[in-house]
Amino acid sequence: VYTAGQCDGFCGLNPNEIVCYDEMMCNDFFYGIMCDGGTKYVSLMLLCDGIPECQDRTDEMLCSDTRLSNAMCGRSTQPSSEIDIRNSAPKQVPLFGFNRCGPVQRLHFKKFRNSTSQVLVPWSVLDPYCENYLDQTNCSDTNRAGLTCLINGHLSTVAKNVICSDEVELGD
After folding, report:
1. Angstrom distances, CA of residue 139 to CA of 39, 59, 96, 100, 156
2. What is the pTM (predicted TM-score) of this model?
């Protein structure tokens, strides 16, 4: 039995929370990784963002090891709560079983930076692991799947938390 907001597919019980303890273990699936000898939890929101959260750098090193996954997607190289106007090209990162249909963060602000200043702007947007929401397909956890459809010519599931969102375009 989960408390309100826990395991609902959205990261954090508070706005802009990125640690995501409320989505760490849901339906017997672990979303994220443990590092530093199993003493530190790193949520999906912090993986492959270019900033090491782990002292042993596991959270960033696994993202360049293509032997661990045969599927890739684009991820912004900026921390998930920032957009750098000068450099917004996504880097290719692997999709893993533990991040398929994992939680997404609902941001309530974004930081916009240019060469001279930084501005906080009110914003309500989903911030997934993959910029194209490919991580919200082919769910490992069937309890998170909301529907089945063709995606890039393959039958796949789509996570409940992104269905009917005007921000997400998935399916053929």
Report:
1. 27, 21, 11, 5, 8
2. 0.72
